[in-house]
Amino acid sequence: MLLGAGELGKEFVIAAKRLDNYVVAVDRYANAPAMQVADASEVISMLSADDLEYVVGKHQPKFIIPEIEAIRTEKLLEFEQRGITVIPTASATNYTMNRDRIRDLASQKLGIRTAKYDYAVTLKELIRVSDEIGFPNVIKPVMSSSGKGQSVVTHKSEVEKAWNYAIANSRGDSQKVIVEEFINFDIEITLLTVKQWKAPTIFCAPIGHRQERGDYQESWQPVEIPEQMLLSAQEIAKQITDALGGAGIFGVEFFITKEEVIFSELSPRPHDTGMVTLISQNLNEFELHLRAILGLPIPNIEQLGPAASAVILATQSLDSCAYTGVAEALLTKDVDIRLFGKPNAHPYRRMGVALAKGTHIQQAREKATRAAAQVGVLSALSIEQLF
Fold it and tell me: What is the overall mean pLDDT for the chain?
C-alpha cells in the first residue's frame, strides 16, 4: 500500500508491477498519477487515523510505503505492531516526516555537522530566532513537500512574509517553522543511499541539483566532488540511516563547501532529484527501492554516463491538461520525456520531467533544460479545439 500517489509513487508502482506485485495507491484526490497504474486505489485524508484504519483493514497490505509527509504517522506505529512492515520503519517515518526531528537526531544525538538552526511557533518567536541566527537565513515549515514554503530571508523586514509563506505551505497540522543559517555552498547534492535488510548499505553516484522557490528544477549525475568529501558524505548517510533502521532508499541531501560536507535533509523514500536515474543508471531509484524492500539482490549499480533531468512546470491553473511540443523535444538524440498524468494544474506545479544523456554534464543539462522548455501545458479543451 502506497500512501501518497504522486509522480514518484507512479514510477515505484511501475517498478513493482514489473515484478508482479499487487499495489494499492492511496491519496487525497482521485486519479493521482500512481493510481493510474496501480491495481486498486483509495481516496482518503491520510491525516485521519480513522481513514487509514479503514483502508488498511480493507486491503490488508503486507507493506505500507509512505510517499508523502502529510500522514498520521502515529497510526503507522500501530500498524507495525500488528505485523505490517512500514518502510523504512514506522519510527523512521515519524522522524523524517518532520524536519525538526531528523535535524535534532543528526545534530544533537549523532553529532553530525548541520547548519545552525532553531525553531519558532509564532511570528514573534520567529523574529527573535532569526535575529539570533543572523541574516541571510532560510525559513521553512518543519513539515512540507518538495521544498514548498521555503524562503531565503536577507533582512528582518522580510521575516513576516516568510512566516506567512511557510505556514501557508505547511503540510499536516503543524504550525512550526525552522530557521537555518544560510550556507554559502559550492554545490548541493543528493546521495541516494540504499539500506538493505541483510546486505550492506550501498550508494548511487552523487546527484547535483538546482532549486528555485525551494523546489527542485534540474538535477544531474554524476557530480564531481573530491573523493574524501564523497567518503565523508557516505559515512554520514550510513550513520543516519543506520540510526533510522529498516530498508529502502533514502535521499540524503548535503551542502558541499570548499572545506566541508554539511548534512541538510533526508527523505526516507525515492527523491525528486533522483528522477535523473530514470536515464542515468542500470537500476533507477524506484527499482532499487523495491529490491531493498523485498530483500532482492542488488549485484551492482552502474552509472551510465553524464545525464540530467529538468522539470516541466505548469504556468497557469487548469482543470484538465494536455501537452504540446512533445514531438519537438523528442527529436533530440538521447532525450526522453515523462509526463506524470496529473489531472489538473496550477502555476509552478511539476507536470513532467525531461531526461537527457550527453557526452559531458553541461551538454546533458542543456539538452534536458531545452527539452523541458519545449513542452507546453495547456487546457485539454483548448487542444481538442485545434482538431
Answer: 94
Return the CATH architecture of domain 116-181.
2-Layer Sandwich (3.30)
Q: From CA 343, how far away is CA 319, in angstroms rounded?
A: 7
Range 123-149 average pLDDT: 89
pLDDT value, residue 269: 95
Q: What is the pTM assigned to this prediction?
A: 0.93
The answer to whether the 116-181 and 307-387 domains have the same CATH topology is no
End-to-end CA distance of the chain: 40
Cross-strand pairs, 249? 194
What's domain 2-86's architecture? 3-Layer(aba) Sandwich (3.40)
pLDDT in tens, 240-259: 999 999 999 999 999 999 99
Which residues, 6+ apart, have CB-to-CB distance to 220 below 8 Å? 207, 208, 209, 276, 306, 307, 308, 309, 361, 364, 365
Residue 169's pLDDT band (cuts 50, 70, 90): confident
Tell whether domain 183-305 is in CATH 3.30.470.20: yes
Q: What is the pLDDT of residue 384?
A: 60
- Would you name the residues annotated as active-site residues? 145, 147, 253, 265, 272-273, 350
For residue 222, say if its preceding peptide bond is cis, omega within 30 degrees of 0.
yes
Nearest to 99 by CA among 51, 149, 34: 149
Domain chopping of the chain, boundaries: 2-86, 116-181, 183-305, 307-387
**Placement of cell 479545439 in the chain:** 385
Helices (H), the chain: 7-18, 49-59, 73-81, 90-96, 99-104, 123-133, 159-168, 227-244, 277-280, 285-294, 326-329, 361-374, 380-386
- Identify whether the C-beta of residue 321 lies closer than 8 Å to the C-beta of residue 345: yes
Q: How confident is the model at residue 355 (pLDDT cuts 50, 70, 90)?
A: very high
- Quote the CA–CA distance of 9 and 271 in Å, as a whole number: 10
Other residues' Cβ atoms within 10 Å of the Cβ of residue 89 = 19
- Over residues 27-54, the mean pLDDT reads 97
Lowest mean pLDDT among 20-29, 36-45, 172-181: 172-181
Q: Chain centroid to CA 255: how far?
A: 16
CATH superfamily name and code, 307-387: ATP-grasp fold, B domain (3.30.470.20)
pLDDT at 352 over 90: yes
